[in-house]
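Tokens in:
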């Protein structure tokens, strides 16, 4: 299939078949090393998806996590999370020994307090061995990587080296001359921390290399990868430190406003995220160069991007810095159509999914539809008893991605257990089925998603496995205890995947089926690889 990308005026690329997939963060994969990674378990997971007829694997953001280990607070929009580097692959590469990996970890959760120092020790060993002459054949590739990624890698590597020097302190607590990026202070830091800076560069090289190899394997198996791009960046990030002019900061580099959302489904007081907000005038003056580079960086590793908090492109909730809750914020216009015109011109397409959940106003839907970007529907929000509820499948358009739930929702089994009686009745009435028990809710909701006219249906692995509260990934507003759930290997050999294959075939979402179209500009879904951007 061929075509030309376009906004409202140009013919988009479209899918020729209905598709489906599963949502699972890389950290949740099985691994003997304490956290899921890009190694053999990821390859086995891709093969499992292929065998079950799935065409999509969606993960959470892949950036380096900071406070709270949240993937939505990465320390860089361009770097990757080196905790995802596979020790097994490093052993095969001859950069570490198997004996370097002797340690024991729980198999059902990520113990970050032990995993992070363990992985850092392995990466330091790999760097030491590489410096000593191991794998000299990788040196040209490493040098080329450093040149190609210099536009973000230099700042990020120094940022991480400085953060280690200052014991992980928020960068605004560093010496003033470093916070303000005084040239002499930065040059002195580079000299002092040269080896640490090089080690950060090398770890990113290893991560990108493993990521490239996994993406090639997935695409060769007909599985495409959906990444996730947070709308905001972390306040404690190399992005803000290196590019302060792109954010609304005061003379001390402190945010003047922070991001959040007003009261909604998840919080009666709204959500106060604390992220600095963008200076869209400054970004617009550069043709949105930094923002486009950010998208391009992620598209090197995935085939399509979920744009988190899509409504922020129309208007974002700006809360005065220091406010105790998000209730005192106000809507401030975002970049609008001009941004997506610029992105389309640079990337040749718009391979995006709009996360358009929460308090959505008509201007947000207008922006989404102007560029024919598929929207998001979550079935757990559907059963309030109103027939015009936009999350009910009979109200879908085909250019939609439907989820049973997301990483922010309870697993469907837990959701159903906590559902008010009247919503349980609405649920079974809508399915035209007699009321069932807790164990029947997740399969029923997946069946409803897969049978809908939405072009793409996705469920968290937890729903396929019919797991409950113990498997929840995130509780919005809760500071601790998130992002740690993991599956173990025998879960992925359960009959649930045979049922998923049957459901996918029956709902005409397998590779041979023809159905409603999903508009994702720049994404030719007949092919096994993305067009180059």
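Residues out:
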């Amino acid at each position: 299939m061929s075509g030309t990308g376009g906004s409202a005026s140009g013919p988009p690329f479209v899918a020729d078949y209905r598709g489906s997939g599963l949502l699972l963060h890389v950290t949740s994969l099985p691994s003997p090393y304490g956290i899921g990674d890009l190694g053999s378990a990821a390859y086995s997971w891709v093969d499992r998806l292929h065998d079950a007829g799935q065409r999509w694997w969606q993960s959470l953001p892949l950036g380096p996590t900071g406070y709270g280990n949240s993937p939505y607070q990465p320390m860089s929009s361009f770097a990757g999370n080196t905790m995802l580097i596979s020790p097994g692959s490093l052993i095969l590469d001859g950069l570490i020994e198997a004996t370097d990996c002797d340690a024991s970890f729980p198999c059902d959760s990520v113990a970050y307090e032990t995993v992070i120092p363990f992985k850092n020790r392995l990466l330091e060993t790999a760097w030491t061995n590489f410096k000593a002459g191991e794998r000299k054949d990788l040196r040209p590739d490493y040098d080329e990587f450093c040149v190609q990624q210099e536009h973000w890698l230099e700042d990020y590597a120094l940022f991480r080296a400085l953060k280690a020097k200052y014991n992980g302190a928020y960068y605004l607590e560093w010496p003033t001359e470093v916070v303000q990026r005084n040239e002499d202070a930065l040059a002195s830091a580079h000299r002092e921390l040269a080896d640490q800076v090089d080690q950060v560069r090398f770890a990113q090289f290893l991560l990108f290399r493993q990521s490239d190899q996994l993406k090639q394997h997935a695409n060769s198996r007909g599985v495409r990868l959906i990444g996730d791009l947070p709308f905001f960046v972390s306040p404690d990030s190399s992005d803000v430190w290196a590019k302060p002019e792109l954010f609304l900061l005061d003379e001390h580099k402190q945010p003047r406003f922070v991001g959040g959302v007003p009261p909604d489904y998840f919080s009666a007081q709204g959500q106060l995220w604390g992220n600095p907000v963008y200076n869209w005038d400054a970004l617009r003056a550069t043709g949105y160069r930094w923002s486009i580079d950010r998208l391009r960086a992620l598209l090197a590793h995935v085939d399509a991007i979920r744009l988190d908090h899509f409504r922020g492109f129309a208007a974002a909730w700006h809360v005065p810095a220091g406010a105790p809750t998000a209730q005192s914020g106000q809507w401030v216009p975002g970049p609008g159509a001009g941004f997506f015109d610029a992105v389309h011109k640079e990337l040749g397409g718009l391979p995006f999914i709009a996360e358009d959940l929460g308090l959505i106003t008509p201007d947000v839907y207008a922006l989404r539809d102007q560029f024919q970007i598929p929207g998001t529907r979550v079935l757990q929000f559907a059963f309030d008893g109103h027939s015009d509820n936009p999350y009910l499948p009979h109200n879908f358009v085909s250019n939609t991605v439907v989820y049973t739930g997301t990483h922010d929702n309870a697993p469907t089994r837990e959701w159903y257990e906590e559902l008010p009686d009247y919503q349980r009745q609405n649920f079974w009435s809508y399915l035209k089925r007699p009321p069932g028990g807790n164990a029947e809710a997740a399969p029923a909701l997946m069946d409803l998603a897969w049978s809908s006219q939405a072009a793409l249906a996705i469920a968290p692995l937890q729903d396929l496995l019919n797991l409950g509260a113990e498997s929840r990934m995130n509780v919005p507003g809760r500071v601790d205890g998130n992002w740690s759930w993991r599956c173990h290997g025998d879960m992925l050999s359960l009959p649930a995947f045979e049922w998923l294959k049957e459901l996918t075939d029956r709902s005409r979402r397998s590779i041979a089926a023809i159905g409603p179209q999903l508009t994702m500009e720049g994404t030719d879904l007949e092919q096994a690889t993305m067009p180059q951007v």
